[in-house]
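Sat 14:20. Reprocessing the chain from the morning session after the first attempt stalled halfway. Input below, unchanged.
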Amino acid sequence: MKKSAALFLFFILSICLSGFQSAAQNTWSQKANFISSRHGTVSFGIGNKGYFGTGNDSLWGSHDDFWEFDPALNSWTQKANVPDPTRYGAVGFSINYIGYIGLGSTEQSIFQKPLHHLLLIQPYTSRLIIAEK
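Finished this time. Tokens:
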């Protein structure tokens, strides 16, 4: 189930951030690349911006960084880091201009520890709030 959800989120993020289709011209345009390849990430959208972060990179390093993509500027801006512990395979969604990151685990290995808390993210203020279980 986790793997299916992670693949679904990756698919949606890939569609949203890799380019936008112009209905009038029926073409795709390349948007700014992200700084590294990642898996087990979390993402959501608020307004006209996309938010993306955490996960592991191709060298199996865990990340706690969080980024905002602005399609109007075609640029990535780093936001406040997600508090410890680093998170892999989490879920993300937004409601009323507040982003939520939850669940997941501490790493991708046999030593992983499931996480049960939820983070509330207010991207416009770069504020992160931990909501305990």
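The two ends are 21 Å apart (CA to CA).
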